[in-house]
Amino acid sequence: MDTLRQSPSPCSSRPSSPRTPPFEMFGPVGIEAVLDQLKIKAMKTGFEFNIMVVGQSGLGKSTMVNTLFKSKVWKSAMPSLEVPTPQTLELHSVSHVIEEKGLKLKLTVTDTPGFGDQINNDKCLRPLDIEFLRRLCRTVNVVPVIARADSLTIEEREAFRSRIQQNLKTHCIEVYPQKCFDEDINDSILNGKIREQIPFAVVGADQEHLVNGRCVLGRKTKWGIIEVENIAHCEFLLLRDLLIRSHLQDLKDITHNVHYENYRVIRLNESHQLPRGPGWVNLAPASPVQLTSPGCLKVRRRAQKDSKDDEC
Questions:
Q1: To which protein family does this belong (predicted)?
Q2: Which has more confidence, 198 or 308?
């Protein structure tokens, strides 16, 4: 049985923000200082952020991650005809600490070599992609992208984006940002614009080139230089703004408060199906028959005795 399909909806367990109107105060009490406290704590402890990149080999996943954080986070392996295609899916993770203006970010990147290498999904999502996304979107925040978008014309890119959006809608695949997590009208407007652009058409590059007297990140071709951070060339800036500038904390909150809690519920439910060995603790409420059984009465008397001893 697939427990992931029976997991609660991600939209049903996120704690709602307080809607109670504030009381009128007679004067300041220093609440605004909490922001300074949070900033000081963040500067000391830093942040943690985990990313898993999934896609066929040779799509530039390593380059995209390096471009995203402007550092050599992941070293790509040079393709070789002698190296066979991986037959099993193995996860490879690497962690780095990135510091910017005194703020540290512990970044963990997980690669999935071998996934989808035997599938041609140039035109639309294939069954493996659909099933993978259906399971994955209940466990993590999914942000799809169109890799190597510079190999497509503008018309081909938009047609491909429309097909992917239709596939996601048809198969009820909720990618980030999920519509059910919009807390107010401002979130709806901002996230609505983001959802219209998904999947982002991106180009990765970790080398700088001189363009009109300035150094830019880009890929050099015989037709010119494709600038990564130029919105007219690709949508890489939209992806980076979503993951880092505007929604990083929201991504972490949803992961912790929704996806992890759903995972924890599933694991707890699975634990009740295991054989009851020594030290078994039943977390389910006891039935009336169990409450009146001799064993249960003995435990209750012992508990009452212990409580009386504590009072003494």
A1: Belongs to the TRAFAC class TrmE-Era-EngA-EngB-Septin-like GTPase superfamily. Septin GTPase family.
A2: 198
